[in-house]
From TrEMBL:
Family the UniProt entry places it in: Belongs to the ANP1/MMN9/VAN1 family.
Protein name per UniProt: Golgi mannosyltransferase complex subunit
Membrane topology type: Single-pass type II membrane protein
Subcellular location: Golgi apparatus membrane
Gene Ontology cellular component list: mannan polymerase complex
Keywords: Glycosyltransferase, Golgi apparatus, Membrane, Signal-anchor, Transferase, Transmembrane, Transmembrane helix
Lineage start: Eukaryota, Fungi, Dikarya, Ascomycota, Pezizomycotina
Superkingdom per UniProt: Eukaryota
Transmembrane segments: 12-30
UniProt-listed Enzyme Commission number(s): 2.4.1.232
InterPro entries from the UniProt entry: Mannan_Polymerase_Subunit (IPR052086), Nucleotide-diphossugar_trans (IPR029044)
Pfam families hit by this protein: Anp1
MF (Gene Ontology): initiation-specific glycolipid 1,6-alpha-mannosyltransferase activity
Source species: Extremus antarcticus
GO terms for biological process, alphabetical: cell wall mannoprotein biosynthetic process; protein N-linked glycosylation
Amino acid sequence: MAISRPVRRNSTITYVLAAILCIFFLYFFFADSTSLPSLPFAPRQLYHTKQAAQNALSPPSLPFIKPTKLGPDEIAPPPPVVHYRMNNVTTSSTPIENRETILILTPLARFYDSYWENLCKLTYPHDLISLGFIIPKGREGNLATQQLQDRIQKTQHPSNKDRFASITILRQDTEPIIPQAEHDRHALVVQKERRAAMSRARNSLLFTTLGPTTSWVLWLDSDIVETPPSLLQDLASHNKPIIVPNCFQRYYNKEEEEWSTRPYDFNSWQDSPTAQGLAEQMGPDEILLEGYAEMATYRSLMAYMADTTADPRAEVDLDGVGGTALLVKAEVHRDGAMFPPFPFYHLIETEGFAKMASRLGWRSFGLPNYFVYHYNE
């Protein structure tokens, strides 16, 4: 049967309108991604990158560009509506190739030049690294802030092409209540109070700085002064939700008259029936601590699994983790895993974090033969 002319005309108009809508649809999804090459972040992750970076509401993990000063009669424009494509924020074993951003977070009570020098030697592209610090109130905190700012001023100078994407410094409104000398702060009697304070500091830093484009979070203590330059890509290459290297300390052995190494961080462990039995007998506000003779848990400590001749990529499952150099997929934190400042299954701070993450379905892993080194006081 022949088709009438009006019907053919309507079909043509329908096809034209459909084509226009299709073009508009494609432009809406892809135009912004292809027109924003000026910033180092993967453009697929967000719309309107330039506006996001220029506005005071920009997440701290994005580079912030100060806007030009307004005249006396000028009115500041309203903040832009910024859309983020969270599904495009990847965490993979090839983070450099995928331009994955890393947020390095450091609770800082004392500033060590060797910490900053080691940080600057990291070979992961610095334009993909954001830094965050939280510093306590008080004289020592003021000194650490000044020393940090002096180094930042040099590192972040416009003439330095290897500067970091952004740096955030938070100051706590309270002074540290725990002694900062290494021997005093590791005494058993102060651990619950000390680690609860550390948890609150870590959570404040995390919740303030974690941005929508962050792929990974590296918790790096301010007294970690030596790591492999490829630390970030080495840890991320395992593509694990939570992974921690073995933290050791270099020291001079007077008996053998030579430099040697010894384990430092005992918070990365595999649980034991003895520890579980102790927990069952504890009150609701009591916590288990590792590395103290007064509280023998007989857990398997990663610190004693080290073998300098074995494969540095060898992995072990962990039930507790230390925070000296801890790489976490940002989605683990976004899922709700934080550092409990209270007894959580009789665990607290980083060990409590591992337990909380496991309750959310995330496993923790350790690298017993891959080392970072702690400052020796």
